[in-house]
Design a protein that fits this description.
- By secondary structure, this protein is an alpha+beta fold.
- It has three domains: 102 residues, no CATH class; 208 residues, no CATH class; 112 residues, Immunoglobulin-like (Sandwich).
- Helix content is 14%, strand content 23%.
- A hairpin with a 2-residue loop joins strand 9 and strand 10.
- The longest helix has 15 residues.
- It starts with 5 loop residues before the first strand and ends in a 12-residue tail after the last strand.
Length: 443
């Protein structure tokens, strides 16, 4: 159990730590289980709550003892205002039904979390249930930084983008081998990549895919599976120009990994039993599925990030086409972010994103003094003009994909304590990489 958690250990046994934050202490006092723990542990829990300036449950004297408790709550606390609606007299003995106390606490707003800022992630978007943002930095000895500290939010919404793709269909005719299939991928601003694969009646490795010379029933589906596997094991090392194949019966659909309008694809073949249809161009979406903020310590009053009422976007990416339904993980140096995209076409895909310092979001409000709107004005990382990001994509749901890493993926860092200073309630629980304890509100 962490120091700022409380754990339920059966209906009759509850363990509540003494070092809870102020917000947690306030919320727990509306819980009947806290009332039971207060009756059991008395002054220690009450002193901790009073130190945070929150109303407390006073422990009464032992049963049968006329002696008054030696400890009294400070009169400036809200105990009397909490009891007055119940009895009408604040001078009666300080005991009440925990259920009724909880209802009165809710009526007074005592159980509500404090919100320093709230930013929209899109009209129908948000963080998936049970998933969490990731926060960086890991230097717990340094003061919080408005520019260097950032948080990454996974967005549970499709981007609206599509991938350029083409469909090839095999027939049951035979092929003697030695024929070729050629794919040409040309990303705008990048290097053209040409992949040529050769049919063979004996070899099904490397850039060869096996076919049947005689043809017949079942050979078309086998040839389609072998071609798709050959495409996937030769995935381009230049990921911006990579393609991936998905097989369905006798058809092979070839997608560019990079979505949007900035990548073109062509396919040609010399096989007599394979034909490709027209290429369907990709489209650009208007919803981000992974976003990053800095100026986290903003808000009303006198925030650490002076003159900032809201955090500011450092990037807003339509990374792939599907939603990001898992918690992201940040590398130890803070430069790479790993997450899973789950969308139509190629299914699940692992992204290792190195976010850029160029144009990493489209035209949007992002001053820090007004509600930022960049979640619905994303760019495609490394593809949209001006973006300097690198989005390395590893398909996870395709046949015979040979996993390649252009660089090592750093392991997750351990959980670290929160920074000192004026850290907002939205993110102040812990300074860590991926944190179930971060109750940041972003809707």
């Amino acid at each position: 159990m962490r120091h700022n958690d409380f754990a339920i250990r059966g209906f009759r046994s509850v363990s509540i730590a003494l070092l809870a934050s102020g917000e947690q202490a306030e919320r727990m006092q509306g819980d009947p289980r806290y009332f039971v723990a207060m009756r059991m542990h008395g002054k220690a829990l009450a002193d901790q709550s009073a130190a945070h300036g929150y109303p407390i449950f006073m422990r009464t004297a032992p049963r049968g003892s006329p002696a008054k408790s030696t400890w009294e709550p400070p009169r400036e606390l809200l105990w009397e205002s909490l009891r007055e609606p119940l009895r009408g007299s604040p001078r009666e003995p300080p005991w009440e039904s925990p259920i009724r106390l909880r209802r009165n606490a809710e009526a007074l707003g005592l159980n509500a979390l404090k919100t320093d800022w709230s930013v929209s992630l899109g009209p129908t978007a948000g963080v998936a249930a049970g998933q969490y943002p990731a926060k960086y930095t890991f230097d717990v000895n340094a003061a919080p930084s408005c520019t260097a500290d950032y948080a990454v939010f996974p967005v549970n919404a499709a981007t609206g983008s599509t991938r350029t793709h083409v469909v090839g269909t095999f027939t049951t005719a035979g092929d003697p081998g030695g024929n070729t299939v050629t794919f040409t991928v040309n990303p705008t601003g990048g290097s053209m990549v040409i992949l040529t694969l050769t049919s063979s009646t004996t070899v099904n490795t490397g850039k060869f895919f096996e076919v049947s010379a005689a043809g017949g029933a079942g050979t078309a589906a086998t040839a389609a599976l072998n071609l798709a596997a050959a495409i996937n094991r030769n995935l381009s090392a230049t990921n911006a120009a990579a393609i991936v194949a998905v097989v369905s019966s006798t058809t092979v659909t070839v997608y560019t990994l990079t979505p949007g309008t900035q990548v073109t694809l062509s396919a040609t073949e010399t096989l007599s039993n394979l034909s490709f249809g027209g290429v369907t161009a990709g489209t650009n979406g208007t919803q981000a599925n992974i976003v990053g903020f800095n100026n986290l310590y903003s808000g009303s009053g006198s925030p650490l990030c002076s003159s900032k009422t809201f955090p500011t976007f450092i990037f807003s990416y339509a990374s792939g086409v599907g939603s990001v339904t898992t918690s992201p993980v940040i590398s130890l140096d803070g430069k790479k972010i790993a997450y899973i995209e789950n969308g139509p076409g190629i299914g699940m895909a692992l992204h290792v994103l190195t976010f850029g310092s160029g144009t990493e979001f489209a035209s949007c409000t992002n001053s820090g003094t007004a509600l930022p709107t960049c979640a619905t004005h994303p760019v495609i990382p490394g593809s949209t003009a001006g973006s300097t990001a690198t989005d390395f994509v590893v398909p996870l749901s395709v046949p015979t994909f040979a996993f390649r890493r252009p660089y090592p993926v750093e392991p997750a860092a351990p959980r670290l304590r929160h920074a000192s200073g004026s850290t907002p309630a939205a993110i102040r629980c812990q300074r860590m990489e991926t944190s179930p304890g971060v109750p940041t509100r972003a809707t």
